[in-house]
Design brief:
single chain, globular
Length: 218
């Protein structure tokens, strides 16, 4: 399995990651969502370098120009609700892609000492033989990612898998290496943080990406 920690390289991506972490900036929901979207756009560009390409002849007003364009069939899959801005970033670049959405949320016990992952909704085309991009902003324990992949796999086996996250924990990365077939999977992270706290949130992380994007929930 290939793992890319894009935060180790100097690029504008680090500015956007810094802003979504910053407690003085992240209260601006519009800016927070847009920065998540921008990170998705950057990752989409990086992933585009790994796709297959073919030459097509493009007719201009003055002639014919051969151009190399991607020819993969892509499915972008996101976990609701935190994944929506991230998903839009990928869709802005892969605008011909099919789309899949999965609802998954943590269900804590009474004292919040443990949780299970509940799924309640799946809308997905077949991923058989396609390039599957799973866009999940926060890769903490990897539990929701595992359930999402199980649900998506019911609609066929992809030819290539890209797991994209804004911030991952080391534990989440390790879980991903166990879940996904190594030969066809690449993990992309904007940053990799060292640990999880006792509530299984990434530390230092950024907080709850869904709440920061869309407001609190009951």
């Amino acid at each position: 399995m290939i793992i890319h920690n894009l935060g180790l390289n100097d690029s504008i991506l680090n500015q956007f990651v810094a802003e979504i972490r910053d407690v003085g900036i992240q209260t601006d929901r519009m800016r927070f969502r847009r920065n998540i979207e921008r990170i998705g756009e950057i990752m989409a560009y990086e992933i585009s370098k790994t796709l297959k390409y073919q030459i097509v002849d493009i007719r201009t007003p003055l002639g014919i120009q051969p151009v190399s364009v991607p020819c993969n069939s892509i499915v972008i899959a996101s976990i609701l609700r935190a994944g929506l801005p991230f998903h839009q970033g990928f869709l802005s670049y892969f605008d011909r892609a099919d789309n899949a959405f999965i609802s998954a949320s943590r269900k804590y016990n009474d004292d919040h000492s443990a949780f299970t992952i509940e799924t309640g909704y799946l809308s997905s085309p077949s991923v058989a033989g396609k390039t599957l991009i799973i866009a999940d902003p926060m890769l903490a324990t990897g539990s929701s990612l595992e359930l999402a992949f199980q649900l998506l796999s019911k609609n066929g086996e992809p030819s290539r898998i890209h797991v994209a996250c804004v911030i991952a924990s080391k534990q989440g990365i390790e879980t991903a290496t166990q879940i996904f077939p190594a030969k066809i999977t690449t993990v992309w992270a904007g940053a990799v943080d060292p640990e999880l706290n006792d509530k299984a949130y990434i530390v230092p992380g950024l907080g709850d990406a869904g709440d920061l994007s869309f407001g609190g929930k009951i």
